[in-house]
Amino acid sequence: MTLMLGVTLAGRDVLLVGGGPVAAKRLRRFLAEGARPRIVAPVLHAESARLVEHHGVAWEPREFCPTDLDGAWLVHTATGDPHVDRLVAEQCESQRVLCINASDGERGSARLTAQAEIGDVTVGVTSTVGADPRRSVAVRDAVVDLVADGRLPLRRRRTARSGRVDLVGGGPGPADLMTVRARRLIAEADVLVIDRLGPAAEITQGLDPDVMVIDVGKRPGRHPVPQDEINRIIVEHAAAGHRVVRLKGGDPFVFGRGGEEMLACLAAGVPVDVTPGISSAIAVPQSAGIPVTHRGTAAAFHVVNGQGGFGPGTLEAMADATVTTVVLMGVAALGRLVDSALAHGVPKDRPVAFVESGHTPQQRTTRTTLGRAVGDARAVGLRNPAVIVIGEVASEHLLLPTPVASGAARA
């Protein structure tokens, strides 16, 4: 039988018997836990020697003797000689000191787990019948994968005395384009505040039934919740001791008003953090085969909010053919945007692309030019959500393979 315990080694003496590569690996782990390791071994592996020198670890260059156990909370023996390891384990047993026997786990009184840190949770796996480290690692990795996919709920079952807010970027749409950290935070959430963009619909299907989901986005026949009210919602629930995730499409700090929500939390004394997401300004053009920069074609790109029009700096940049302009939320203002660009001298034949519903089965890409953009948008019925790309990278010929000359082909 094996009883798993969470042991705090910080500031406590740990004895390592043996100085080979296995001992070096364990030494690194014990140092990371804040333990005070010391080593007894005639010689040291190069990595052990480096760690000893770098961290000032005490090393006795000799064979083990029973008095080495004095003051030790835990012993790890990995001498490379099973007979010596067994003798060390027997001495530990007689002195009631826990011992990890690297050469024969069943003869030791303790075993290290295959371990992973997942937020504020530590997952540890060990075998109960015989030592089987590969199996333990496989189980640990499977648990980590479940968390990464958001399939394992990690919510606290007791309300904390103080909550927190995480502003989480959901990326351009599909849940599998979210970061591992984003999926974990959602699995830990008590309250999820969503809008119409990003992977909200897919994510909410797998939540615990008692997770509160608050939709603050704009829907047909319903106005969006004002930003001040969103700020109040996230602060209020965090102050009640809940873990709040504000899930946004794209990245919270790219036209996501994440900065305003962070300021509201800070002003209220609520802990807040930001988890980045893949911005639709880059990911959506990419889904249509449009790079926002391309060597020899575009050396810079501007990301603008189309609702506010093109400012002087953007118009000046657009006059440079090596600059890509990516317009978010620009469908309704397309006519005004095109007029201002043309009036500033941007050529009518500058390539333009509309990418609607990027990274979804409904994705549609329309290639046009600045001069024809308004008419073509009307003809195809351009609708939100859409990203507008203006620049030479939007040319449909950009990423076509260069034809090989007949002479080169024969060579």
Automatic annotation (TrEMBL):
Q: Where is the active site?
A: 195, 218
Q: Which Pfam families match?
A: NAD_binding_7 (PF13241), TP_methylase (PF00590)
Q: Which GO terms describe its molecular function?
A: NAD binding; precorrin-2 dehydrogenase activity; sirohydrochlorin ferrochelatase activity; uroporphyrin-III C-methyltransferase activity
What keywords is this UniProt entry annotated with? Methyltransferase, Porphyrin biosynthesis, S-adenosyl-L-methionine, Transferase
For this entry, list what GO says about its biological process.
cobalamin biosynthetic process; methylation; siroheme biosynthetic process
InterPro entries this protein is in?
4pyrrol_Mease, 4pyrrol_Methylase_sf, 4pyrrole_Mease_sub1, 4pyrrole_Mease_sub2, CobA/CysG_C, NAD(P)-bd_dom_sf, Siro_Cobalamin_biosynth, Sirohaem_synth
CDD domains referenced in this protein's UniProt entry, alphabetically: SUMT
- Span of domain Tetrapyrrole methylase: 167-372
Stretches that traverse the bilayer: none
EC number from the UniProt entry = 2.1.1.107
Show the PANTHER family listed in the entry. Answer: S-ADENOSYL-L-METHIONINE-DEPENDENT UROPORPHYRINOGEN III METHYLTRANSFERASE, CHLOROPLASTIC (PTHR45790:SF3), SIROHEME SYNTHASE-RELATED (PTHR45790)
NCBIfam families for this protein: cobA_cysG_Cterm, PRK06136.1
Q: What is this protein called?
A: uroporphyrinogen-III C-methyltransferase
User: What is the organism field in this record?
Assistant: Microbacterium foliorum
Instruction: Give the gene that encodes this protein.
Output: sumT
